[in-house]
Amino acid sequence: MNRSDAELVADHLSGNEKSLEVLIKRNLKPVYGFVYKYAGNAENSEDITQDVFVKMWKNLKRFDQNKNFRTWLFAIAKNSAIDFLKKKKAVPFSEFENKYGENVIAETFRDLSPIPSELSERKEKYRCLALVAAKLPQKYGEVLSLRYDKDLSFSEIARFLGEKLNTVKSRHRRAIMILKSVFLRQK
Fold first, then answer.
1. Which residues contact 72 (CB under 8 A, 6 or more apart)?
2. Confidence (pLDDT) at 1
3. Is the pTM here over 0.85, yes or no?
4. What's the half-sphere exposure (Cβ side, CA atoms, 13 Å) at 136?
């Protein structure tokens, strides 16, 4: 019998350790594949995946069983991958010094920071975008805000708003089209 993730979680919390094994086996490959997109290699992906399942096991008692288990698990995977990448050791510039103490990499850098006119232009574009976005119908502005300010996925936005996924995607697409048309008219 193929039990759902929700049933396996409930079984595990009731003391059935075998349920945890089934949950891990069922989700191991999908989580590994997801994490691999962040890490880019097998060794780091294996480390992150192991970390994901340790965190899942430690926090399973706090998991809200009214929520979707896979969504929760993949949120852990995403956060673990991002944390790993943040902690990843960067190569210090001193590693690039030659025997004379000259840093050939640092000496070849040019200043890549934007010049004041570019900053001013970006600021003006952002101001215009914010003004146009504020004038959008509420249903469009709300989707844009949740997507870009709150960094929610379309399915999370749909659940939050109590709307169908395709409705949310359609509103997002229409809002982007409106913004593009306004900016094209300004050029």
1. 63, 64
2. 60
3. no
4. 27
